[in-house]
């Protein structure tokens, strides 16, 4: 972990970014107190397809549940 004062960070921003890209953590201080911690960001998440698209791609096998329940209700077995 590296620590830089605010003035040093302003002068060496490119160096700080290179350190962070390399996996290091950088802390920037103001008047001796830590005020900012720079860490490497997480990679972007892959976008998930919409629920509507997913539902449209589902193929149903057999009879719908409502019809099955209706048959069970109307039969002598229930």
UniProtKB/TrEMBL annotation:
It comes from the Bacteria. InterPro entries: Antitoxin_Phd/YefM (IPR006442). Belongs to the phD/YefM antitoxin family. Antitoxin component of a type II toxin-antitoxin (TA) system. This is Antitoxin. It comes from Duganella violaceipulchra.
């Amino acid at each position: 972990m590296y620590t830089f004062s605010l003035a040093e960070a302003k002068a060496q921003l490119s160096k700080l970014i290179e350190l962070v890209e390399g996996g290091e953590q950088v802390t920037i201080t103001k008047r001796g107190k830590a005020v900012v911690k720079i860490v490497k960001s997480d990679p972007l998440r892959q976008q998930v397809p919409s629920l509507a698209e997913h539902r449209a791609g589902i193929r149903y096998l057999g009879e719908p549940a409502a019809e099955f329940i209706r048959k069970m209700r109307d039969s002598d077995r229930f």
